[in-house]
Structure formats: C-alpha cells, structure tokens
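U., I forgot to send this yesterday:
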Amino acid sequence: MSGLSKTVLICDDDQGMRDTIAAILQREYRVLSVPSGESALAVLKQEDVDVLLLDVRLPGINGLDVLRIVRENYGFVECIVISAISEGKKFHSGRGLKSRSTRPDMVTSLLRRSVW
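Result:
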C-alpha cells in the first residue's frame, strides 16, 4: 500500500463493475470493494474511507438508504453515485451529491474533480 493515502470504497452488487473500477483506481488509491449496502456500512465502521462509490440498486438495503446513513453518520465521507443514467437523474438532484457516474472510466476523473 506504499504511498496510497486515500481510500475508496466501491459498493456495487455487480462483481464485474467492482473489478473494473478497482482496476482503474488501484494504482492511485487504496481500494476496498463490497457487494451490498450492509457490507459497506460494516466497512465504514472499521476503516477510514475517504470516498464511497455507491450503486443505487443493491440487494438488501438500497443505495439511497446507505447514502442517507452515510450522510448522517459519516459526514466526512464523499459519496459518488454510480448507476444507470435514468436512475441517476431521478435521485441526483436535491440530495447534495457533487457527482454521479454512469461509466467506470469516468470514475477517476470524478474523484479528482469532486474530492481532491
């Protein structure tokens, strides 16, 4: 982990999406990856996470509920929602999100622009 100072938590039930985003980010960031909202909340209790990349449609607790819990309990964690365009537009407005992404190759750009 030498030199990787920022930690990104990817929460997406799609293993392929998690793997793709992790492959893009792991050269510059410490990357953690989970398949569910419950898992993301458990990681947040134990790890110092700087950014949460969060899908909306998750098994169990959905991404919007995770987002609400993160905002209430982990205000220092930046959230970037990753989801389909139609879903993203539906909830992005009015929730105070700085950014949303619909493609894995946009994630690095969003991280740099939104957080650092």
